[in-house]
Design brief:
Maf protein, globular, binds inosinic acid, alpha/beta, 198 residues
Length: 198
């Protein structure tokens, strides 16, 4: 069976990618499976550059086709912030998801509601030979001031998914995996995956 390395250390993303890729007849390998202790710094200026940095580094280190994503939350009232910096968006040195959510709400308080926003995800697929391809997915919604729901990770409890009346954290995994930015990017990458995995 062809193999694909899932190039992320985020346990929430690993679980989502495993579910999203389950039906593709590809053997999914995690960084933990390979004991691959490679930390890739996200120094790119775009989601695409960061996703490529990660996918290429993991493909080279493992000898397998690797998938990595870069994703973020874009809030209109904050001119698209936190965007590319979503994982670093808090004053703390090693912020938790709760720190990031609190910081976002603090910065939004002075802006009138509603607070339209979207999650964006760029997936990069890289082969050890240096080929790298991309796909993108968007999930529109709005930020709400109180946390709702226990599923998911990151900004999910304060992100109301357009058309559902529920936050991303109120959607069970199978529903998040039909609507999310990551689901849409992975779906768009399916034809590439079949070609690029060996
Ligand atoms: P990165 O893609 O690893 O740079 O991380 C992006 C950051 O955006 C994550 O650490 C989360 O804070 C946020 N994020 C990305 N996707 C999601 C999601 O599906 N739900 C909630 N937060 C997300």
């Amino acid at each position: 069976m062809p193999k694909l390395l899932i190039g992320t250390r985020n346990p929430g993303k690993v679980a989502e990618f495993r579910a999203l890729l389950a039906d593709l007849d590809i053997e999914l390998v995690s960084l933990a499976d390979l004991d691959l202790d490679l930390v890739v710094r996200e120094v790119g200026a775009t989601y695409q550059e960061n996703a490529a940095l990660k996918a290429k580094a993991y493909a080279l280190a493992s000898g397998l086709t690797a998938l990595a994503d870069d994703s973020g939350l874009e809030v209109d009232a904050l001119d698209g912030a936190p965007g590319l910096y979503s994982s670093r968006y808090a004053p703390q040195v090693n912020p938790t998801d709760a720190d990031r959510r609190a910081h976002l709400l603090k910065n939004l308080v002075e802006h009138p509601r509603p607070w339209p926003a979207r999650f964006r995800c760029v997936v990069a697929l890289a082969t050890p030979g240096g080929d790298c391809r991309f796909s993108e997915g968007i999930c529109p919604g709005e930020i709400i001031p109180e946390e709702r729901g226990d599923f998911g990770f990151g900004y999910d409890p304060i992100f109301l998914v357009a058309g559902t009346g529920r936050t991303m954290a109120e959607l069970p995994m199978d529903e998040k995996n039909r609507l999310s930015h990551r689901a849409r990017a992975v779906k768009a990458a399916a034809p590439l995956l079949k070609r690029m995995c060996r």
